[in-house]
């Protein structure tokens, strides 16, 4: 149980285009989902926290107009990288917290590798 | 400031040798603590977690970790490493930072295993 999927797993796009990444909790409901960014050989940096039905909370330094997050249902959150540029190339990982859980374990997706040419 | 530190960026051990990966945290209380493993190009898999109680916790794949409050540490150990354990290991702590609770990761330790 507690499986999180991401789609696509790998995407290449041209500079200036937008890319949407989906994060789904497959067998549980997730009130809260998180989006992380990981540069090569570095740690995960939290970009934003997404709560179902409300606006996402972005970390300091993360452009909310560039990284659009939508959490329209209890099993789906999307991250759209708008007007992508080569510096946006990275590994994006989402995680989900089980709704109503008595503790705060997060389950992570397999990640999406974005390459912007 | 709240932080998680993994002092060792890269560790190499021989297969069959014991392993200890270090993790320290900086926080005004005892956070929830986690160890994750990440294989190349993959997401994170939870190895074990500590919330409270017994300070020695057992995880999957033969890993264990010990919480030491006096040292603000949560070191990961394995008595005998297998070649398949080669991966990146992240220590993380669930702490109140920037106005709300969040999972904060250490920089990671890359483990290489020699045959």
Structure commentary:
The complex is a heterodimer of chains A (117) and B (115). By secondary structure, chain A is an all-beta fold. Chain A is built from no helices and 11 strands. Chain A has strands at 4-7, 10-13, 19-25, 30-38, 44-51, 57-58, 67-73, 76-81, 90-98, 106-108, 112-116. At the A-B interface, strand 5, strand 9 and strand 10 of A face strand 5, strand 6 and strand 11 of B.
TL;DR?
The complex is a heterodimer of chains A (117) and B (115). Chain A is mostly beta strands.
Mean pLDDT of chain B: 93
What structural class results from the helix and strand content of chain B? Answer: mainly beta
Q: What is the alpha-carbon Rg of chain B in Å?
A: 14 Å
Count of extended strands of chain B: 12
Mean pLDDT of chain A: 90
Structural class of chain A: mainly beta
Topology pattern of chain A, helix = H, strand = E: EEEEEEEEEEE
What percentage of the residues of chain A does DSSP assign to strands (E)? over 45%
Cα distance spanning the termini of chain A: 37 Å
Rg of chain A is 13 Å
Main sheet properties of chain A:
7 strands, mixed
Oligomeric assembly:
heterodimer
């Amino acid at each position: 149980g507690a499986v999180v999927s991401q789609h696509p797993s790998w995407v290449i796009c041209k500079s200036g285009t937008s890319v949407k990444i989906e994060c789904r909790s497959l067998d549980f409901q997730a009130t809260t989902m998180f989006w992380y960014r990981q540069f090569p050989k570095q740690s995960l940096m939290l970009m934003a926290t997404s709560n179902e039905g409300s606006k996402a909370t972005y970390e300091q330094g993360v452009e909310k107009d560039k990284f659009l997050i939508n959490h329209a249902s209890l099993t789906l959150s999307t991250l759209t990288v708008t007007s992508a540029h080569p510096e946006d190339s990275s590994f994006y990982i989402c995680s989900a917290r089980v709704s109503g859980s008595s503790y705060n374990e997060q389950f992570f997706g397999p990640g999406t590798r974005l390459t912007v040419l | 400031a709240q932080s998680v530190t993994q002092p060792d960026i890269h560790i190499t051990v021989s297969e069959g040798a014991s392993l200890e990966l270090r993790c320290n945290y900086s926080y005004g209380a005892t956070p929830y603590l986690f160890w994750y493993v990440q294989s190349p190009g993959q997401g994170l898999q939870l190895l074990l977690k500590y919330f409270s109680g017994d300070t020695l916790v057992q995880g999957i794949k033969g890993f264990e970790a010990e919480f030491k409050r006096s040292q603000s540490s949560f070191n990961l150990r394995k008595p005998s490493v297998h070649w398949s354990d080669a991966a990146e290991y992240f220590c993380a702590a669930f702490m109140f930072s920037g106005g709300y609770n969040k999972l904060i990761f250490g920089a990671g330790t890359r483990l290489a295993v020699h045959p």
